[in-house]
């Protein structure tokens, strides 16, 4: 790597590196960062279809390589072995984690990655505060520029919120911490107070003289870690898709704030892309649950499954089906629609499910998969699992594309989903999930509902009318075991 | 660069991001999160500057080490993020119709 950099440095000999000031004045350098930024745009553009997606990912890698190499070329590196070592250590950890992680654990992994971006942003912000000269953010009198101080304050604040919020999200998704909301007394007052404190201190930090502002800076950092923690602990498991998307957005804004400090176009473009990406995903998730972003952030959803309705639902009659029933009915069927949910991920049932689907297709059955936007714990969670199980992506449909087909479906096969098939969302104004777009499974001739037991209800804590319908057969078992039994029966 | 040009780039990039992300197919939303994760680690640029400059005479040693830790964290994300995206995207296949 050193030889490579040495050779590269010669190319830039005509315009020696700016040693103490990080501001890149070389137009080629600015162009290089711009190219990196454009490549990142291509990386996201590629994801518009699975065919172009892998090329997009490569664009992203090239963009990152350009950004890193450009930075190393244009700054006199006094500690190359250490930097190379740091990249090697981090790279190895990241690479091997990425290779070994189970697809069902993807939400945790993404949350963990978000926390790292957040922490890195905080560290860069602190480093810039301690060594402003290196970042070229000093004015003529040797003080940090006012505008840079605002950017630094915001950057570390957003970074710290991203970090502590993502750590909590990770612990919840990974099961180290209960997915149930944790409610602190007076939490709204507390949160707003802390938030106001951060904003006020950032403003003060910008206008106060540099001397003696250390305490303010560190207080901003501390309060921001605190608010990230406070914001996420009252949010329940079912709202995690929104939280993960929101933290994704924050990690982008943190990078953008640091980009402002460094005047670096690659960071600004990337930050804006990632920030809007996360914001759009949060919006899509909220819409798919018919909940406002504010109500998700206010938290507490899924906390109250009252014991009273728990007693009521056990008394109602329901039919129990067997794997043989399911196998027989589906073999006779013309159209089968499979609706996977988080329960499929928990049971790791995607491979057994795909095997079942393949056998049915050999029998001439038309098998389709229907995915709700909030199925699982992050956007697109179910799609990845089905892709992992080798389900062709043209058999997988989104809610609005397939919902009209339930009327023609002979069988709706629900595996590990619950709230997304609950007709109460359409009919019961008092239901907490009222207004949420759901699958019209009740229009299918027969419904098979895989569930571990009749006791539990979905994350929203609402009873589901579908359990008790005439055409419904409950398959009470572990999702994976049930699919395997159906495969045997086929 | 002056603040206004930087701000202009930022605002334009937000619009580009808005339109590009809406065109992403919902099936690829998880890879989208993974890849945005990887590219937001471009923050490594800041960490590299801190790590590189910290070792100079007037530089702060603390800043240097913070930079190095930042480089480690961002590298985890860059390599991990791109690798896991690659792994996921490789799974999205369209089977040949028999």
Automatic annotation (TrEMBL), chain B:
Subcellular location per the Swiss-Prot or TrEMBL entry: Cell inner membrane
Enzyme Commission number(s): 7.1.1.1
Membrane topology: Multi-pass membrane protein
UniProt entry tagged with the keyword Phosphoprotein: no
Domain (NAD(P) transhydrogenase alpha subunit C-terminal) ranges: 7-94
Alphabetized UniProt keyword annotations: Cell inner membrane, Cell membrane, Membrane, NAD, NADP, Translocase, Transmembrane, Transmembrane helix
Species classification: Bacteria, Pseudomonadati, Pseudomonadota, Alphaproteobacteria, Sphingomonadales
Membrane-traversing stretches: 6-25, 32-53, 65-85
Superkingdom, natural source: Bacteria
The reaction(s) this protein catalyses: NAD(+) + NADPH + H(+)(in) = NADH + NADP(+) + H(+)(out)
Signal sequence extent: none
Function: The transhydrogenation between NADH and NADP is coupled to respiration and ATP hydrolysis and functions as a proton pump across the membrane.
Protein's UniProt keywords contain Membrane: yes
InterPro entries named in the record: NADP_transhyd_a_C
Protein name per UniProt: proton-translocating NAD(P)(+) transhydrogenase
